[in-house]
Amino acid sequence: MGKLLRNFISLFFKKFELKHHFLFQKNRDYKIARVLYFIFFLIFIPHGITHSEENNHEKPIETQELESVNSIQFLNSSKNSFWFASTKEIDPKKYSGLIDESWEVYTVPSVYKSKKEPDKNVPILWVVKKFKIQKAWTEQIAIRAGIISDRDETYLNGVLIGKNGDFQSDKPQAYDKIRIYKIPEGLLKKDKENILLIKVGSYFPGEVGITQDFTSIGPSFLIEKDFYHTEYFKLILLMIYLTAGGYFLFLFMRRRKEYENLFFGLFTLLLVIYQFLRNQIKYDLGFEFFHLKKIEYLILPLLVPIFYHFIRTLFKYPYNIVVKLTDTVQVSIFLFFLFISNTNTYNTVNSNLVQPLWLISLSFAIAHLIKKIIKKDIDAIYIFFGMLIMLASIILDVLSTRQIIVLPRVTGYAFILFILSLATILANKFVRLNEEVEELNTSLEKKVEERTRELNQTLGEVQALKVQQDGDYFLTSLLLNPLTTNKNTSESVETQFYVKQKKSFEFKNKSHEIGGDICITSNVELLGKNYTVFANGDAMGKSIQGAGGALVMGVVFNAVLTRSKIKAQKNKSPELWLKEAFLDLQNVFESFNGSMYISVVMGLVDNETGFMYFINAEHPWTALYRDGKASFLENELVLRKIGTPDNTESLYIKTFQLFPGDVIFVGSDGRDDIQLGTDNEGHRIINEDESLFLRRVEEGQGKLKETVEKIFHSGILTDDFTLLRLSFKENFTEQETHFSSEFVSLIENGKEKIKSGDIQTGLSELEKAYSIHSDNEEILKLLSTMYYKSKNYEKASKFFDEYLKIKPENVDTFLYASYSHKMSRNFNRAADYGEQLMLRNPNLVKNLINLADVYKNLNVISRAKELIEKALALDPENTKGLQVQRSLSQFSQEF
């Protein structure tokens, strides 16, 4: 059927192209769409897929050893866990567990294929699993048997513990239902062999067995809790989608000309219904399984065409004849499904006709988007990337449905990214049409444009000064002075400047200075936290040349600060903010082709915790004054001066925890280049001891004025000299924190329970303590660590997020947080943490491998390859790295 359909559609395109040759000459969309169609066709309808299993010549272990079932234990096939299958008729009450030649090793989960007769249709299959339990159990035990296609009777030790479906019925019963059966008390044996025997009846020809999900045994309340948490979380997401879809349907009712709102609302509504019908909660409603499946199949012919029309109406494309024909066929299929009642027919038509026709609609949709992307349409870019994520999830689900791979459904999770991208675009479009908001946006736009023009004008003046060797010093100083500003208003972080430029001049009987040093402080808000920004720069050259560099830095850095007030810029991590600020400066200075460089120390200090992020680009080392002693924070040169080619490859963000009373000094090299005197020949003696500055800070007791005076007493300045002093809670009085006895008791009990092995109870006690003091560092660390160790990555990621808000200095935690978010399929958050960690520790191999795996899941293959190549360059024999590299190579070949 699939081969005939491929030949038919291929012939159709050739005939159509000959008949409408002029269209293909004029309309590039047709050409792009046709190429995309055949690419997708190769993905969705493979010409021949062979399944191969790894040969295992070792004798399989018939009985799996389980230490305890007081926690969930997985029963899926592995090197220590084997399932067996037989098509021979068995009496479940008399079966002794003997594995003879009629049994074959069967991989769970997967569709059963007999090694002896792989093409044989198996209507009834017997599946057996044997296991022993070493320790006693205290709770009622249940078994999760995964998704069984289609009906089953499940026996434990010869006793029926559960069943689904009627073996005599010719209708589907429950081929996508997760089976959970409670084990009657006294049936499970300790230290003896337990025999789990499942009778499986097929519905679809060639599809029988435990096909999806996973198998496990454990306390029934834990298994049900895990089951319902997952399903209800999906329902919550569906409610969000439903709200978004309803909102845009309401917008269409108010503005009937905007059909994109109608199509988006219908698309969202249909997809919500479809995803609900894939949710296990549907079985609690009491509806007949066949009727639910019929609704599911009725939605499929309409879903993708409606999405195409959303793209078409959003970007004002005409309704072409190819899509009209495709839509006609899809509507006909919908009506056909409506009047027949055979799930096998539904499945065959869907696989061989509906899905291939989807590719035509998707090909034109992507062609439209590519055409807009070429024109740099931002809405098209957003939709395209959202669509790529959604398309990848759909491909995985289609391949899973066709039993080519075995994976859980991922479309429901990927859809949130997709729907948010579409909803954001439509919401922005609606906002632009709203008169009141449009007026505010126009006003803001004008201000931004005006500010940009001013900055561009200033930068243009710098270029003019560069050409004009005899530039006006006074004009330059007028431009530079407003850029050297101490705008920090934080009460916990105080900043002070001292600026002394080497070049002095008089203008209109007033003395002025000009030079290449600059100091800037301000405040920004990032991820809901307030930071103090500081920067100290020393541009290459003397007087006017140095002033030009300082002016460029002042313009660019103040532009960065201005841009940071925009809402979108506030959602960045401190590391990313510093990286982008550095890149902005690097790109501008690099454009001078080596005629202008600048050394810089710039950073951010958390106003609440005192945690400092900073970059040192070949600037004198940062000094710390603590408890009467001064010391340097750096001990090696990492970055060259800003403007040096290829400087970004060595970008490294340093961090340091400031404590109350700590003082930081950042200064230009004028602090060290002191003329101590002259030798016998009259030559100047210049200080070469960098530690001299530390002694002057100690002599000045960490005060700015006193430190500057001590430096001047040492000798004569020979260069521009600036000094920036930053103190954290200098007059802070530490207050003792008192915790309630209940809180302390909960922590101690929790620790004790965990230590004794009662992990669940211990975590429960700790979560109660967390509800009392949610910002307690110890609680957050314990909860995140224990949930990580117990592989509850969803909860681990939640507590890692909270922990890193108050303890960002813990570098290892970023890796654990990234991994937890990855395992929770929150790949964007995982990428954020990985990128933050890479900026702090660029050569951490574990992070590079994990981040490459994250980007592979995000379908950002180029970035993933770049990271894995770097990781393997550092550790060529790393097993995990080689595994990810092979996975990327395989992924590239497939797509």
Structure characteristics:
895 residues, alpha+beta, Jelly Rolls, Phosphatase 2c, domain 1, 4 domains, 7-stranded mixed beta sheet, 5-stranded antiparallel beta sheet, 25 helices, 50% helix, disordered N terminus
Rg is 34 Å
Main sheet properties: 7 strands, mixed
Q: Detail the poorly predicted runs.
A: 1-28, 30-57
Morphology call: globular
Query: Beta-strand level of the residues, as a percent range?
Result: 15-25%
Rounded average pLDDT: 82
Task: Give the CATH H-level superfamily of the largest domain.
Answer: PPM-type phosphatase domain
Q: CATH class of the largest domain, anyone?
A: Alpha Beta
- The level of helicity is 40-55%
Oligomer: single chain
How far do the termini sit from each other?
24 Å
CATH topology call of the largest domain: Phosphatase 2c, domain 1
Given the helix and strand composition, which structural class is it?
alpha+beta
What is the second-level CATH architecture of the largest domain? 4-Layer Sandwich
Number of strand segments: 27
Helix count? 25
Count of spatially separate domains: 4
